[in-house]
Design goal:
Helix 17 crosses helix 18. With 487 residues, this protein is an alpha/beta fold. The chain has 20 helices and 18 strands. Bound molecules: adenosine-5'-triphosphate (ATP) and magnesium ion. Adenosine-5'-triphosphate binds next to strand 9, helix 7 and helix 15.
Length: 487
């Protein structure tokens, strides 16, 4: 095995060094050093996983070696050897960061067990750091924040599809970031004449939409006093973003189909085809497939549009992204409001994690803005956020009467109506959910190990798991108690 763990044995007595090496070299890759200088040589140049060092090293002080080893960028796990009776020094060594100590005369089996344990704790420590980093890492391309598992494939798709000319259909509820994604795709497309032109299809009457998209000739219809260049032509060489595509009428659908298929358009009132080179991105918060079924949207156009589809999940299924988004909006809005804010008050985030955000990210942003405006201190607390946050299912959406934004209301309301009682399965934040599930997975469902990875006591984990187990979806992922290996 070439990835055997490495152990550095440091002792000024030759027979101890040799004895240890003999007993350990079957299991580990062993190095020996007779003094601190030799030891440092190995520590600096080789990958040493565990250092086993005498506390009294002739003239060298083992404690100094310990400090130097622990100060390295990738410190080894340090186990100290000490003469029987000098336990105080050993305790001091542990206070400084040594993993453990063994007393001389050595029990070689004990040493081996200790080294194995040390290695395991080191792996766990590394995994713990990696786990935390993973949760903290912010995926951000073109201002799209989101670190949750559901956002990762979306970000990958955006990156993958951007440089192509493929038509993209973005589906998602209101406020999930459809326009942001459309702009990201355009910005990453690298199209030379990089302009993006947006048309909000729902806002225009059929006739106006048609001339808006394709332009018109002078005198094409009453009121057409000038020739007008349409959005397709304006977007030539770049991207045309058709927002609320589900709202366009039947006749414009036909024309759009042709524009997409043949890359030519005709201005209203003209039969002269104009060649265009436009990448189309469409967005909708309607269920287009259902509209096709109901005969409200052309099937051929539907398939033309959805060469690539991006489905943006509602915020309630990716609550793990709330902390990052909230933090981002807090910073942004504090800046625009000329205020300096500390991170969100500790009661704010739990409430935000419980709420279902029917208005999605736009609503989250609005809530933070509410908080920024209502707070007179340097912190946004729960009492500064809209009081409907206390209703986890978002029944409060739209109820933004002044009485509901009174801060008094927000702090004193404990929902008693069962309909607005926070769901008990959301007592732990989504971030915690993720961490716990990952830790359990990585520890092979060993709760002691998982608790260690999470930096919490086994009992705390136990308690949190009890909450977690109430959730049916999680129960499937977390093995039931009976199958958990004894730990
Ligand atoms: N992943 C994200 N990271 C950061 N900000 C986001 C993200 N998604 C959306 N936003 C912000 O949320 C707000 C709403 O996004 P956007 O306008 O793109 O939503 P939409 O899906 O087009 O909504 P609608 O259907 O109502 O038009 C914007 O301020 C946008 O910048
Ligand atoms: Mg939009």
């Amino acid at each position: 095995m070439n990835d055997q763990a490495t152990v550095l044995i440091v002792d000024d007595e030759k027979h101890t060094r040799d004895g240890l090496r003999l007993s350990l070299e079957d299991e580990f890759d062993c190095y020996v050093a007779a003094n601190a200088a030799e030891a440092m040589e190995y520590l600096e140049n080789d990958r040493i996983d565990v250092m086993l060092t005498d506390l009294r090293l002739g003239e060298d002080n083992g404690m100094k070696l310990l400090d130097a080893a622990l100060a390295l960028p990738k410190p080894p796990v340090c186990i100290m050897m000490t003469a029987y009776g000098s336990v105080d020094t050993a305790v001091e060594a542990m206070r400084r960061g040594a993993y453990h100590f063994v007393t001389k005369p050595l029990n070689l089996d004990e040493v081996e067990i200790l080294i194995k344990r040390a290695l395991r704790s080191r792996t766990l420590e590394h995994e713990n750091v990696a786990l935390k980093q993973q949760v903290e890492r912010k995926f951000s391309i073109e201002g799209i924040l989101g670190q949750s598992e559901v956002m990762k494939p979306i970000i990958e798709t955006i990156q993958q599809v951007a440089p192509s000319r493929a038509t993209v259909l973005i589906e998602g509820e209101s406020g999930t970031g459809k326009e942001l994604v459309a702009r990201a795709i355009h910005n990453l497309s690298g199209r030379p004449k990089a302009n993006i032109v947006s048309v909000h299809c729902a806002a225009l009457s059929p006739q106006i939409l048609e001339s808006e998209l394709f332009g018109h000739e002078k005198g094409a219809f009453t009121g057409a006093q000038e020739r007008r260049i349409g959005r397709f032509e304006q977007a030539n060489g770049g991207t045309l973003f058709l927002d609320e595509i589900g709202e366009i009428d039947a006749s414009t659908q036909v024309k759009l189909l042709r524009a997409l298929g043949e890359q030519t358009i005709e201005r209203v009132g003209s039969s002269k085809p104009i060649q265009i080179n436009v990448r189309v991105i469409a967005a909708t918060n309607r269920d287009l497939a259902k509209m096709v079924e109901e005969g409200k949207f052309r099937e051929d156009l539907y398939w033309r549009l959805r060469v690539v589809t991006i489905q943006l999940p509602p915020l309630r299924v990716r609550k793990g992204d709330i902390p990052v988004l909230a933090d981002h909006f807090l910073k942004e809005l504090a800046k625009t409001n000329g205020k300096a804010f500390k991170p969100l008050g500790e009661d704010a985030l739990p409430a935000m994690m419980k709420y279902d955000w029917p208005g999605n990210i736009r609503e989250l942003r609005a809530a933070i803005e509410h908080g920024v405006v209502m707070s007179n201190s340097n912190r946004v607390m729960l009492k500064h956020l809209p009081s409907y946050l206390l209703n986890p299912h978002g029944l409060g959406i739209g109820l933004r009467a002044p009485s509901l934004i009174s801060t008094k209301d927000a702090t004193s309301t404990t929902p008693t109506d069962p309909a607005i009682k926070p769901k008990s399965d959301l007592d732990i934040t989504e971030v915690e959910h993720q961490l716990i599930l990952q830790a359990l997975q990585r520890s092979g469902n060993n709760r002691t190990v998982a608790a260690e990875m999470l930096g919490m006591s086994r009992r705390t984990l136990q308690r949190k798991l009890k909450d977690l187990n109430m959730v049916r979806t999680h129960r499937r992922r977390v093995q039931p108690e009976a199958q958990t290996p004894a730990s």
